[in-house]
Write a structure and sequence with these properties.
homodimer; 323 residues; Farnesyl Diphosphate Synthase; two-stranded antiparallel ribbon
């Protein structure tokens, strides 16, 4: 059962402090960089990682000011990767807002991403923890490596191992980094740090699987992008993988299993239609629920508090969202 | 008078360790990333920053292993900025070797640069110094901000202030970071740290001015790029600034002073020819010598040793090189 809960005023104030801190990173630099950062941050986003950091850190008694710095560092790292991602994909919209690359030159977009990476690293250093910096930089290596894999190796790849590696690199690694660094900055045991790291991992995996399901089953007007976009780009995700298991003789599936990329629009449309109507969607949701359940188990021992209730709520709702 | 000196075997061994450490950063990642890194590092370069770090750190009694990590971090940061720079400029060759962007897609080039940034940050974190991380990330912000300025504001800009800011961001900031972080990792006083930071600054400014002079007076076959390339790209550097002072009525100068970019090849060719034949070259070299002299003064109190001799030699020769 999912509890109904509203955000704690203290956490909301924390999120506002994070927004402000992120925005001021370009204050002493080129005015165009400042505008770009402002534009990127104004397009919003769920700020789910900052919320997790502020909630978990409060539960674990970390210093509030340090948590705000950490949350800003992690969210800016995420923002920087999106800037370069959208450039690489030639994406025109993100969350319904024009991407930077759709308005600026490639050169300016590359540099803005670089500047945001540097700002994120600078904030991470301001947590005054070498361990945090190590997790931070290793995570960036993992994320970028995943993107390189996706560019060179993952297209039309029907390997389950490739899929799990990909969603780890793309999403779970940063959730894991968020909860791991939060615990590093908290007065808790190494054992608890590892549990909190794993909590972020499980939650991040659940989160990305739900994203991948929504790519098939979401309402286009809510998700903000066309249904089946991943498959159209040659990206095989969990619903497709379950569909392959149950429908090895489907025409599109046969092509994919032969190592081909689908290039016929009708084949792709039919395949997307079949997947949406199949049990593959429910199987994928079940799997996301298993990840979320493991995530919940890992935080079950945390002391009862309104913060814990909200963290549990956020973990539960991460798999029942519509976008 | 410039001493003649050969590299100390210990420093040469250190440079080889730096090369090896840089190269292994992609070992556990995508094979194409590893190839790209290997290609980038094989094109060589003077490795002047690593040499300065190893020499200065030895004089200041820093831990050798930490110095090798730091030198690798700083050189990889430099390498990453070059990767994105060459992409932005559409450069085909660097040091006579094909650039990554000339062989790979823009997407792969962006990601390779990002990966090298992340590796550099990861190595910087491995120095286990939060102060080093702060200098490192702030320097990256300065460098990228300088590139954004150059993209948006510096074209055909005849302001001396703009020039000095530009060469600080482009070159001196990383020299300064190299000597500053070396001193941070050494058992020396805050006063000495500041002196060493300033040593890097002065040396870096001298170094870039010499680069800018070579762009006019260097032999194309030695420098590896056409004479006057900066001006052809709308970049006003010190020789041009001195020439403007003495020749306000030159046709090209008049256009520039009116805020125009030169677009007539003949005007540009004539201007380059006039600058090369003028005293502007010598005036610029004199200015580089003043920076180098201040740099030498800042290290004059360091105890006599073969390492100091080599550091002095390297500082002196930074302004008499041919490429």
């Amino acid at each position: 059962m999912i509890s109904t809960i509203t955000t704690l005023p203290e956490i909301q104030a924390g999120i506002e402090a994070v927004e402000k801190l992120m925005l001021t990173q370009a204050d002493e630099y080129n005015g165009d960089l400042k505008s770009a950062l402002s534009l990127l941050l104004s397009s919003g986003g769920k700020r789910i990682r900052p919320r997790i950091i502020l909630l978990l850190g409060s539960i674990l008694n970390a210093n509030q000011e340090t948590l705000i710095i950490l949350a800003s560092a992690i969210e800016l790292l995420h923002t920087a990767t999106l800037v370069h991602d959208d450039l690489i994909d030639g994406a025109v919209l993100r969350r319904g807002v024009a991407t930077l690359n759709s308005k600026w030159s490639a050169a300016a977009t590359v540099l803005t991403g670089d500047f945001i990476f540097a700002s994120a690293a600078n904030l991470a250093a301001k947590t005054n923890s070498v361990e945090v910096m190590k997790v931070f930089s290793t995570t960036l290596m993992t994320i970028v490596n995943g993107e390189v894999n996706q560019l060179f190796n993952s297209r039309c790849n029907t390997s389950k191992a490739d899929y799990y590696q990909r969603i780890y690199a793309k999403t779970a690694s940063l959730f894991e980094a968020a909860t791991h660094t939060t615990s590093i900055l908290s007065p808790v045991s190494a054992l608890d740090r590892d549990r909190m790291r794993r909590y972020g991992y499980e939650l991040g995996m659940a989160f990305q699987i739900v994203d991948d399901v929504l790519d098939y089953s979401g309402e286009q007007s809510v998700v903000g992008k066309p249904v089946g976009g991943d498959l159209r780009q040659g990206l095989v995700t969990l619903p497709m993988l379950y569909f392959i298991d149950s429908n090895p003789n489907n025409d599109g599936v046969k092509e994919l299993l032969q190592g081909k990329c689908l290039d016929n629009d009708e084949t792709i449309d039919n395949l997307i239609h079949s997947i949406v109507a199949s049990s593959a969607i429910e199987q994928s949701i079940n799997e996301a629920e298993q990840f979320a359940k493991r995530a919940l188990d890992l935080i079950s021992d945390l002391p009862a508090s309104p913060h814990k209730d909200e963290l549990v709520y956020l973990t539960e709702t991460s798999i029942v969202r519509k976008k």
